[in-house]
Amino acid sequence: MAQLSDAAAAVVDAGARATKMMVFRGVPDFDQREWSSLTLAQRTRMARHATWFAGAATVGGNALIGIETAVMVLFSLNGGRLSFGDERLPSPWIVAATLAGGVILNAVFGMALFRPQLNWFIAGEPADRARRRAVVAIPQHQVYATFLAWGLALLIYLLWNRHPATVEFAAVAGAFSLAAVSSACITYASIERATRPLVVIALRDSPIEYVVHSVRKRMVVVWAVSSAVPMCGLLMINVGRGVGLLPPVAGRIDWATLVLALVSLGAGIRVIALVGSAIADPTIDLSKAVERVRGGDLSTRVGVYDMSELGVVQHGFNTMVEGLEERARVRELFARHVGDTVAAQALEGGGAARGMKTVVGVLFVDITGSTRLATQHDPVAIAAVLNRFFTIVADVVGDHGGFINKFEGDAALAIFGAPLALDSPADAALGAARDLAAQLTQSLAISWGIGVSYGTVFAGNIGAETRYEYTVIGDPVNESARLSDAAKREGVPVLASGAAVAASGEERSGWSLLSSRVLRGRTEPTELFVPDDVKQSARPPAARGGVIADLMRAPYQAIVRRSVH
After folding, report:
1. pLDDT per residue over 140-154, tens digit each?
2. Which residues cross the membrane (predicted)?
3. CB 178 within 8 A of CB 217
4. In terms of domains, do 250 and 370 share one?
5. How far is Cα 308 from Cα 233, in angstroms, rounded to an integer?
6. Residue 204 lies in a domain
7. In this structure, are 366 and 263 located in the same domain?
């Protein structure tokens, strides 16, 4: 049994690969491409491959079934002897001609029904509702054509044979009926696969309105070909022999039932390969797509080419991934506005207003002379400078584990220790201040002031129930802004409070006391520290020829030219 299962699986896999190569050959990843990107030559080539596959499956299947049927009829009427000279047998030439006529009629009827949909596919026109219905109904129409062809073949036999005996005609009619059922089932499975390119286009961007080719219907096809038809054939042969309509078995081997068994095995393999691949292909495509989505590729889509319950799953998968992609875009935009950490906390906590007291390091950086700058220069050029300035600030703060709480005008407020806890917020803030001063000096010819403070604040969501933002409230925030102002007045790039330096570990040895002063708006003096490795690279604006002159230096001029043009 295990060997039979492996053999059946191999047949299904081989059939899937062969039909996929034949139908989709020349256009790789067809089901993932935009319809407009396919050229007329590509559409024509795909239509030709689909036509050849459908024709080969229909004509070849009917021809094979016709040969099997003819042999069955002859063996049934002569008692299973390997002799065809009995006068009671129908003429082999008449049977062969009848079957050939049926195959030709089936091909003609099938192509007449298939041609309008192929023309639409080649033209590249959009599919309306009527077109979608016509495309998904192609397999059913081919089944009707198959039954009609076999019925006409039986009529041709009746008209051609001058004196058909009742027994002979009954045997031929019964055999043709079973052959028609078997042929229709195999045609159904073959055409459904051959028309996949058409179905992909017809159902693109359109939800499946109803299930047409259900999995249950496909299982009925398998049952009909592999069980119902051969069992009915055996019943007809044995009942015919029992009532005397058919001769008894003449030899030791009943060739009629033996041929019927072989025919059933062959037909069963064919239909299992077709129906099995029809079920396996969408499942395999979905599993591969799931792996790509799991790997982070949210642009993944699957072609909707199945009109069974699997097609509903295909369409549902695409809808689900579209939702995930939109959610990722919203989350990315949200994170850009409030920061990655705050965005993650908001999504995990449901956006509830919450906060807590915590000890943080605070860094405040502000550009000197921004008011005069705004009144005397083009806003686009100013925006370019600010974007460059804030990019440097964000990169440095992020490298030290900080969080940009606000961009306000030409200033930025960074927090170290909230919302993401740090081992030493003071060290992180002081280290970021030194690195930021060095990078701003190298990258931008502007004046600025950096203030670093340390202490206890409230960190959390502040605002109304319908609109709030994450912020920090406390004296260290105000102190850092005052230190930034003092740095600009003193002509030094960075000033840190004594509390920040005292709370630090590794950074403490790299800072020196500059002075002790009462900052604006405060009553107690604050110790002012500067980093040892930062020289007084920034002087008061008046001593440098003004902020405007600084902003017109080479780095800024390059940014202005890129922004304007």
Report:
1. 888 898 899 888 888
2. 52-73, 93-114, 135-160, 166-189, 220-239, 259-280
3. no
4. no
5. 30
6. no
7. no
Residue 538 shares a structural domain with residue 397:
yes
Q: Is 285 a domain residue?
A: no
β-strand partners of 414: 363, 404
As a whole number, mean pLDDT of residues 375-395 equals 86
| Same structural domain, 240 and 375 | no
Residue finishing a domain among 263, 280, 297: 280
Contact 92, 84 (CB under 8 A): yes
Residue 374 banded pLDDT, cuts 50, 70, 90: low
The Cα–Cα gap between 222 and 271 comes to 6
3-state secondary structure of 381: helix
- Asked whether residue 17 carries a pLDDT value surpassing 70, the answer given is no
Beta-bridge mates of residue 223: none
- pLDDT, tens digit, 9 for 90 and up, residues 270-320: 888 888 888 888 889 899 999 999 998 988 888 777 777 888 888 889 889
Residues 273 and 364 in one domain: no
The domain boundary, picked from 235, 251, 280, lies at 280
Residues forming a β-bridge with 356: 459
pLDDT of residue 351: 54
Other CB atoms closer than 10 Å to residue 326's CB: what's the count?
A: 11
Q: Check whether the bond before 379 is cis (ω within 30° of 0).
A: no
- How far is C-alpha 51 from the geometric centre of its chain's CA atoms? 29
Q: Residue 469: enclosing H or E segment and its boundaries?
A: strand 468-473
3-state SS assignment for residue 366: strand
Instruction: Report the Cα 106 to chain-centroid distance in Å.
Output: 39
CB–CB of 519/497 below 8 Å? no
Q: Are strands 494-497 and 448-463 parallel, antiparallel or unpaired?
A: parallel
Nearest one of 538, 364, 531 to 452, comparing CA atoms: 364
- Helix (H) or strand (E) segment spanning residue 113: helix 92-123
* 377 and 237 part of one domain: no
Mean pLDDT across 41-63: 82
**Nearest-CA neighbor of 501 among 491, 490, 512, 517?**
512
Nearest-CA neighbor of 224 among 256, 262, 188? 188
Q: 249 and 79 in contact (C-beta within 8 Å)?
A: yes
C-alpha distances in Å from residue 553, one per residue of 225, 385, 559, 560: 85, 12, 10, 11
CATH number at residue 528: 3.30.70.1230
Rg (CA), the chain: 41
Helix (H) or strand (E) holding 462: strand 448-463
Cα 500 to Cα 517: distance, rounded to the nearest angstrom: 16
- Give me the half-sphere count of Cα atoms (radius 13 Å) on the Cβ side of residue 440: 31
The count of structural domains within the chain is 2
Residue 469 bridge partners (DSSP)? 462
Place of tokens 């049977």: 95
31: domain range? 2-192+219-280
Q: What are phi and psi of 361, to 5 degrees?
A: -100, 140
Does 34 share its domain with 133? Answer: yes
Sequence-separated (6 or more) residues with CB below 8 Å from residue 153: 98, 99, 101, 102, 105, 176
One domain, residues 227 and 376 = no
Q: What stretch of H or E contains 530?
A: strand 525-531
